[in-house]
Specification:
The protein has helices spanning 10-34, 40-54, 71-78, 80-98, 106-131, 139-165, 172-202, 213-228, and strands spanning 58-59, 65-66. By secondary structure, it is an all-alpha fold. Strands 1-2 form a two-stranded antiparallel sheet. It starts with 9 loop residues before the first helix and ends with a helix. Keywords: Cell membrane, Membrane, Transmembrane, Transmembrane helix, Transport. InterPro entries: CbiM/NikMN.
């Protein structure tokens, strides 16, 4: 998913950089409401985990490979605003120190993975969570579905950006079919990894999982109501 330099023209790259900068500014403000003394260290661990897993590529087909995007996973664990910041830091380090993703394409990569990947994953997670029984265990399948959907959606958004400002004359349908098809398979792996990571924390410390807080709050309210009665 990392977009290298030269795939998109200058106006499109500048446009995504502006979008990314605005999103990071909003995330800096929003993260203050998501983090506290207990969960702040988890944000650093999430960024480290995403960084490490993005370095591991798994083969798909015809010589292509994919890696974890981590947007949905980060959003469920530490909240979407904090997740946007965590993914941004990961992408910044990768671009500057490891030449993974272009410098001029940094805004594009943040837009695709730190904004689309995070917020689509979070939105789908909340939708699925609303439909499932209100139990902490249900955070895991909801997170998996969010991860599954977020990856091909981010790939489709790249196809849209390439149609707007791509430097090669390739039909939109060709790019979209290839990108979404490959990343739909990657999304399955993302869903499995996300489910395993979220489950490991939900089973031991659900109070640290941002996506589980509404369920825990409702449970606490129910217990207090029962005690009062």
């Amino acid at each position: 998913m990392h977009v290298p330099d030269g795939f998109l023209d200058a106006p499109t790259s500048v446009g995504t950089a502006v979008v990314a900068a605005a999103a990071v500014g909003l995330a800096l403000r929003g993260a203050r409401r998501e983090l506290d003394d207990r969960t702040a260290p988890l944000a650093g661990l999430v960024a480290l985990f995403v960084f490490a897993t993005q370095m591991l590529n798994f083969p798909i087909a015809a010589g292509t490979s994919g890696h974890l995007l981590g947007g949905a996973l980060a959003a469920v664990l530490v909240g979407p605003f904090t997740a946007t910041l965590a993914i941004t830091v990961v992408l910044l380090v990768q671009a500057l120190l490891m030449a993974d993703g272009g410098i001029t394409a940094l805004g594009t990569n943040i837009t695709l993975m730190g904004i689309v990947g995070v917020w689509v994953g979070w939105g789908v997670f909340k939708l699925v969570q609303a439909l499932l029984p209100k139990r902490t265990a249900m955070v895991v399948p909801a997170a998996a579905v969010g991860a599954l959907v977020s990856v091909p959606v981010a790939a489709f958004m790249f196809s849209v950006l390439f149609a707007v400002g791509g430097t090669a004359d390739v039909p939109f349908a060709t790019v979209a079919t290839a990108m979404v098809g490959v990343h739909a398979v990657i999304g399955i792996g993302e869903a499995v990894i996300t489910a395993l990571a979220v489950a490991s924390i939900v089973l031991t410390r659900p109070d640290l999982v941002y996506g589980a807080k509404p369920v825990l709050a409702k449970r606490e309210l129910t217990i207090r109501s029962a005690v009062t009665a």
